[in-house]
What does this fold into?
Amino acid sequence: MDLGLLQREVAEIIGVTESSIWNWEHGTEPELQYNPSIIKFLGYIPFDCPDDTVGRLAWYKRAMGMNLDHLGEAMGRDPEQLSDWLSGRHYPFRKNRERIERFLEQQETFLLID
It folds into this structure.
């Protein structure tokens, strides 16, 4: 609205249908794959980054629009293990938390962090 753009114009910029924009404006969460385009359009990440390691990893996954397979590939980790950590079924031991932290530190240059 601030930019004076119509829904169809925003949809074209982000790469979705006009009905997707309408749905998002009315409370439907965008699919993960669209988050990077939405963030680029907005110029910022519209959700807060937690302070804890696993929370930051979930935030990164969401901001980058990654599924578990893509995140696992990027980290060199088993997606099932990542699922266990992100769902809270298991908590990573210190050595794995340190690996996650190193991974996130390397990725920070690619994100628009406030």
About this structure: Residues 103 and 109 are 11 Å apart (CA to CA). The radius of gyration is 16 Å. Residues 32-114 form a domain with the 434 Repressor (Amino-terminal Domain) fold (CATH 1.10.260).
